[in-house]
Specification:
Layout lengths: L1 H18 L6 H5 L6 H4 L13 H6 L7 H8 L1 H9 L10 E6 L2 E4 L6 H7 L3 E5 L9 E3 L10 E6 L5 H6 L7 E7 L5 E10 L15 E5 L6 E6 L7 E3 L17 H14 L5 E9 L2 E8 L6 H4 L8 H9 L5 H13 L8
Antiparallel strand pairs: 1-2, 1-5, 3-4, 3-5, 6-7, 6-11, 7-8, 8-9, 9-10, 11-12
Amino acid sequence: MGFLGGVRKIRSFLRVDKSFGIDRDFAMLRQGFFSKRRYFYPFDKFPKEFLITDWEIEFGFRALNPSTAKENLKNKVFFQLMLRHSPVFDRTPGVVGVVANGQYRSFSEFNTLDAIFKAKERVFLKPVSGWAGDGCILASSRKQVPETGSYTIEDCGEPHTYSSDIFPHSINTIRVFTLKDEFGEPFIVGAAHRFGGSIKNPIDNFSKGGISCGIDMETGILRSGLSNPGFHSTIFHEYHPVTGVKLSGVQVPFWEESKKLALDLARYFGDLNYAGWDIYVSPTGPMVIEGNGDLPHPDLIQVHSPLLASRRVRNQLQKFGMISLQRKDYIDRLCQTSHIHLDRP
């Protein structure tokens, strides 16, 4: 990497940390974690060695996928059109068309914007290239379609009742992480169920005030929820703070089908070494909204359980060169001697 390359990485890392607008924690930074992690990573329960650091995420995970593979997921139009010709073509709400600077191009039977709103009560507009829910619009009339910018126009998904009972104002997606093993076969690293946390800001993105619940990967049963308002505290939720509906212990329907969908997607987009798939459960089964191949935010899982507690994950990340052999061996020894018994298959 060289001296200058190392300096540039440090400066970049510190800039990202500063962007969160909280007091610097140099002890956390020296260990490779952003300052904000002190508020919601479970350092009181797990040795810090079991958590992938932000330094490893920023400069390791980002390099695991080829740039072309990441672009296939980043462009929402291309992603949706690829799915039309995939084995999971029926597992997406579907793209109606795209509007760019007020000009509409149809990918459906609707040839004009007026025809869309004449037939549909509402549609979902999503920036062609974007993240974290920024710029998304739930439109019920032609007047709500922006005159500038490029947006996909998609059918609105219908969530399963278990999800809408908990919080009816957002789609409430499950982020499922997949990683490819040494034989090129994907496996599931973990998952987190996100729910909107506020009626005023009804999106389920964790960084925008949403609630993240851990999921038992075998059973699909939700664990307690966490929210991190303003990055200055962690709030635990057994019940949703708006609706009062219980979170912990809820069974996610179609759980095996949801896991299979994530693996099918990872196989179809075969040049991805890892990905985070945004899936929601409809009344008829799981549906995919989008994939994330650049930085799918593994912190969504690590707020609940450290990723390197999995032997399979740490072995594969070591093979990818993201963590060192010495670090993997050290964690292996910790797993053998620790009374916490963190190791998972």
